[in-house]
Design goal:
There is one protein chain. The protein contains seven helices and six strands; from the N terminus they run ββαβααβααββαα. The protein is α+β, with helices and mostly antiparallel strands and about 170 residues long. The relative contact order is 0.13. Helix 1 links the parallel strand 2 (about 20-25) and strand 3 (about 55-60). It is globular and about 60 Å long. The longest helix is centred in the C-terminal third of the chain and has 20 residues, at about 150-170. The chain starts with a strand and ends with a helix.
């Protein structure tokens, strides 16, 4: 396969995708320079503004394939980020779930940009080229902890369990 980048855009379909999402999955061997990375980021920003996904990200295909998302985080992915990636797009409602704009803007990310449509682009580190490095993983974990995503996922799982119990009750 000589595909350099795969773009996935879902609009509530298939049924497990209940929110609009955008994912650019990059085969890193084709990203050689910082200019390549910035071109991809510009494309993603344009797509984000045009498509307005609830959540979006740019991922290193190899890293994502070798380190699957934990099931409990994946189950909540329509409400919360299932992991912190290099580039993370979150619409305004998602930002509120994460503690609000101030909390997100003050996170230990490399850069946080407020977009014209009220969404946020959070870059965890300076470059996608170093995504698989341990230092970058530490940065992504620090952002996860700053946003207290373990606790947010725990709370969201509790809400989902209560909803399921209510639906089963006569």
């Amino acid at each position: 396969n000589d595909t350099k980048t795969e773009i996935y855009w879902s609009v509530g379909h298939p049924p497990e995708y209940q929110v609009d999402s955008l994912q650019l999955s990059v085969h890193r061997e084709y990203m050689q320079t910082e200019q390549d990375v910035q071109t991809l980021l510009s494309l993603a920003c344009e797509l984000q503004l045009a498509l307005e996904p609830v959540i979006g990200h740019i991922v290193d295909y190899r890293v994502e394939k070798t380190t699957p998302v934990q099931p409990e985080f994946h189950r909540n992915s329509q409400f919360l980020p299932e992991r912190i990636r290099w580039a993370n797009f979150w619409e305004a409602e998602m930002v509120q779930r994460l503690g609000g704009i101030d909390k997100v803007m003050e996170s230990p990310a490399y850069e946080v940009r407020l977009c014209t449509n009220g969404s946020v682009l959070l870059l965890s580190t300076s470059s996608l080229l170093t995504y698989s490095n341990e230092e970058d993983a530490v940065c992504r974990q620090a952002i996860w902890e700053w946003l207290d995503l373990d606790q947010l996922h725990k709370e969201q799982s509790g809400i989902r369990e209560q909803e399921l119990l209510r639906r089963r009750s006569p």
